Amino acid sequence: MRNAIAIGAIVGILCPVVGSYLIVQRMAMLGDVIAHCVLPGLSISFFLGIDILVGAFGSGILGAFLIAWIRSQTRVKVDAAMALTFSTFFALGVTLITVLKNKLDLDSFLFGDILGVAPHDIYRALAIAVLILLAIQLFYKELLFYTFDKTGAQAVGLPTNTIYFGFMAAITLTIIASMQAVGVILVISLLVGPALTAYLLVKELHQMMIVGAILGAISSICGVYLSYYWNLPSGPAIVLLSSSLFLLALLFSPSQGILTRPNPRGSTATMRRLGLLKRRE
User: Fold this and answer.
1) pTM of the full predicted structure?
2) Which residues contact 53 (CB under 8 A, 6 or more apart)?
């Protein structure tokens, strides 16, 4: 339980920070695509007996390169390129597991096994989190410029290609750090869920990352406790709790909540009525 709480807090903080950039750039599904692209690398790493970080990272980056190459060399749209890459890499990974006869626990890979986390998994996740968060802090202005105005960033001389592939590397490392906790299928929910909730509550990107990290840590830790006391699968418990927080924000957010936001139509109608009353007077 201590190990589960530790890695849950780490990935709960890291995923929303990276996911905030995905949401603002309208590329939320890219995280899901890269999450499935790491499967061939995992299979090859198990077969060769090397660290899974090497194979998973290489496979995820290769998937990101392939999407960028298809977009730049053809008229294919980004959603179609991601769908093709997603299905191809996932099918290749399942095929390699069968052909190479790897003893890879596919269920744990897909849905996570946070209660099976070892201390070295925590150290790896912590090192990845520190590296990515430090890079975001150092290059925050450049990332902000690139996120909201890619053309302008290229015009002023920023290395947009380097920023893009660095961002892909950050997403891949984040997914690798989160695989043990929630699995590749559910990792997109942890990337997007807390960040989306924060998006409904605040307006600035840095505030969105901070609030999202807090909500992500709360969802992860509380999800671990729920899975322990109610005998629930840990990864889905974390994701469902994160989704519940989003639903509450969707309904009751002070500025964008469905039930609490100001009604512009009602305000306009009220102003018109006041105008008519003044004219009659």
Assistant:
1) 0.85
2) 124, 176
Dihedral (CA of 62, 66, 67, 73) sign:
positive
Nearest to 35 by CA among 64, 10, 7: 64
Q: Roughly what angle, to the nearest 10 degrees, separates helices 28-48 and 52-73? A: 130
Of 256, 197, 245, 217, the residue nearest 20 (C-alpha): 197
Q: Copy the structure tokens of residue 182.
A: 């929630």
DSSP, collapsed to helix, strand or coil, labels residue 94 as helix
Q: DSSP labels for 71-89? A: HHHSS--HHHHHHHHHHHH
Place of tokens 């590329």: 27
The predicted-structure confidence for 205-217, as pLDDT tens digits, reads as follows 999 999 999 999 9
pLDDT in the model for residue 86: 85
The rounded distance, in Å, linking the Cα atoms of 109 and 185 is 9
Tell me which amino acid residue 123 is: Y
Cα–Cα distances in Å, from 188 out to 20, 52, 56, 210, 238? 12, 20, 16, 18, 12
